[in-house]
Prior knowledge:
Layout: E1 2-11, E2 14-24, E3 29-34, H1 40-47, E4 55-60, E5 63-64, H2 69-73, E6 76-79, H3 91-101, H4 106-119, H5 134-146, E7 152-156, H6 164-179, E8 183-187, H7 191-197, E9 200-205, E10 208-214, H8 215-222, E11 226-232, E12 240-242, E13 245-250, H9 253-266, E14 269-276, H10 279-288
Parallel strand pairs: 3-8, 3-9, 6-7, 7-8
Antiparallel strand pairs: 1-2, 1-4, 4-5, 9-10, 11-13, 11-14, 12-13
Helix pairs in contact: 3-4, 6-9, 8-10
The protein binds adenosine-5'-triphosphate.
Amino acid sequence: xxxxxxxxxxxxxxxxxxxxxxxxxxxxxxxxxxxxxxxxxxxxxxxxxxxxxxxxxxxxxxxxxxxxxxxxxxxxxxxxxxxxxxxxxxxxxxxxxxxxxxxxxxxxxxxxxxxxxxxxxxxxxxxxxxxxxxxxxxxxxxxxxxxxxxxxxxxxxxxxxxxxxxxxxxxxxxxxxxxxxxxxxxxxxxxxxxxxxxxxxxxxxxxxxxxxxxxxxxxxxxxxxxxxxxxxxxxxxxxxxxxxxxxxxxxxxxxxxxxxxxxxxxxxxxxxxxxxxxxxxxxxxxxxxxxxxx
Length: 294
Ligand code: ATP
C-alpha cells in the first residue's frame, strides 16, 4: 500500500532520514518505533506528501505521492503529532467543517460524525473544542482523520500524552478498524501498544532502519515475556491481591487487553500497567543501546 525506496531527507546537511526502504502492506498495522529524533515523524510526513524527500521515491497505492498527491490523499486519514483544533467551534461544527472539505453530503456527514463520536465514546458533541480535555481533543483529531472512511491511516503517536485507559481505548479502537480492513502505519513510544496491535514493527535509529520484522518472529526469537496490571476494584475478583490492589500477570497481550477493558467498563482504577521485559522491549533496548546517547 505504501512503498518507500531509498528515501533520504536532508535538512541542510543533516540527514533526518537516510536511505530508507520500507513497505506498508495492505491490511496490516505497521508500528514505527525509535528514540526522539530518530526520523519517525519525517517518514510519516513524507508518506503523506507533506515533506518532500531529498532523494528516493514514495508510492502510495501504486501512485507517486508527489505527482499524484491530490488523488492519493483522498484515501488517507492522517493524524499529525500535534493537532490544534479550531477552539471556538463545537466538536460537531468542527467535524462538519472538515466533512465539507471532503465534499461529503451533509446528511451522510452528520450520520458519520455521530457514529464516530459514539464509537470513540465522546459524548461532548456540542462542547467547544477549546474546552475539551487533552484526551478528548485527541479523540476529535482522530475522528477528523477517520471522517471520510479512509482505507489507509497514517498516525503520528496517536496516544501521546493520554492516560493509560484512554490510550488503550484508542489502540483497541484502531485494532477494530484494522479487523475491518483498514491499513494502518503508526509511530509510538509505548511498546505494549505496539506489541498489542502491530503485525510488524520497524525500528528506526538516527534516520536509518535498524530492523523491520513481524511481531511473531520477534516473539519467537526472544520468547514471550510478562506484563503486569495493578488495579483497584470495588468487587470480589479472582486475582492476586497485594495491599489494596489486585495484580494480574500474564504473557498474553490479549488477556491484558481483556482486563483493561473490564477496568474501563466498570470504572475501576488502573494503578499501573507495566511490561516486564516484553520481547519487543528486549529487542529495542538491545538494538538501541544507550538511549541517552543515540
Ligand atoms: P520524536 O519521537 O521526538 O517525535 P521523531 O523520530 O519523530 O522524533 P523527527 O521529528 O522525524 O523525529 O526528526 C528527525 C530529525 O530531523 C531530528 O533531529 C529533528 O531535529 C530533525 N528535523 C525534523 N524536522 C526538521 C525541520 N523542519 N528542520 C530541521 N530539522 C528537522
